[in-house]
Amino acid sequence: MPDVPHVALLDASLDDTHVQRNFTRELDARLSIVRVSEGEPLAPWPDAGAPRADWPYDALIVSGSQSSVYDDRPWIASVERYVQRALASEAPVLGVCWGHQLLAQTLGGTVRSQERYELGYVSVEQVAEDAIWDDVPHLFTVFATHSDAVTQLPKDATLLAENEAGVQAFRHGSAVGVQFHPEYDRRCAQDMIRRKSLPDAEKQAALDTITDANVQAARAPKQLLHNFLRMAKSHRTAHSA
């Protein structure tokens, strides 16, 4: 196998939401998929004093979910504790949608339900330079689907991107959260909209954003996934030296 990072994908989805298909397609990595929402275990952290290299992963990606990060579910608390350990060791962590919100909550930020459901292809603007944005346009198009949002960033977090709906990306140390879905394709976007328990007019308005132009434009921000993998490889090199 090529020299690629070993990434644990924490699949927090509650049913078949294309998580595994999307990330398997987009990531050039050795991917260990763990259905954390079903209680599947992750590799344990090394005991105190043990070499950091005993942990098998180079990085974590936390997926989207139909749950809310503030729900009282044992598996959510378990994921949060695991992410805390990763952050404490400065391992690279990428949170996508629900994962973005979990990162914010874990680090002391605030996540709240919003009146407006952001759904469909939307525009997002970078507001700070960061390696995660290498070769990503300053203003980009991407798919979003969420009714919860980060309403207060964690202390010492850097806002990386936003739009009229609010926070769209942030960094805190080795962790990056993105509210949108860089991993989606047209098939996934259509399916996720049609599943929503929303008025038909709202769903149709979101479906109307799935144009050839928007689908093509949304290929550019997929680059941030490759940028994250590059960070994971750099982290592995640093910790194996």
Automatic annotation (TrEMBL):
<protein>
    <submittedName>
        <fullName>GMP synthase</fullName>
    </submittedName>
</protein>
<dbReference type="Pfam" id="PF00117">
    <property type="entry name" value="GATase"/>
</dbReference>
<feature type="domain" description="Glutamine amidotransferase">
    <location>
        <begin position="19"/>
        <end position="189"/>
    </location>
</feature>
<dbReference type="InterPro" id="IPR029062">
    <property type="entry name" value="Class_I_gatase-like"/>
</dbReference>
<dbReference type="InterPro" id="IPR017926">
    <property type="entry name" value="GATASE"/>
</dbReference>
<dbReference type="GO" id="GO:0005829">
    <property type="term" value="C:cytosol"/>
</dbReference>
<dbReference type="InterPro" id="IPR044992">
    <property type="entry name" value="ChyE-like"/>
</dbReference>
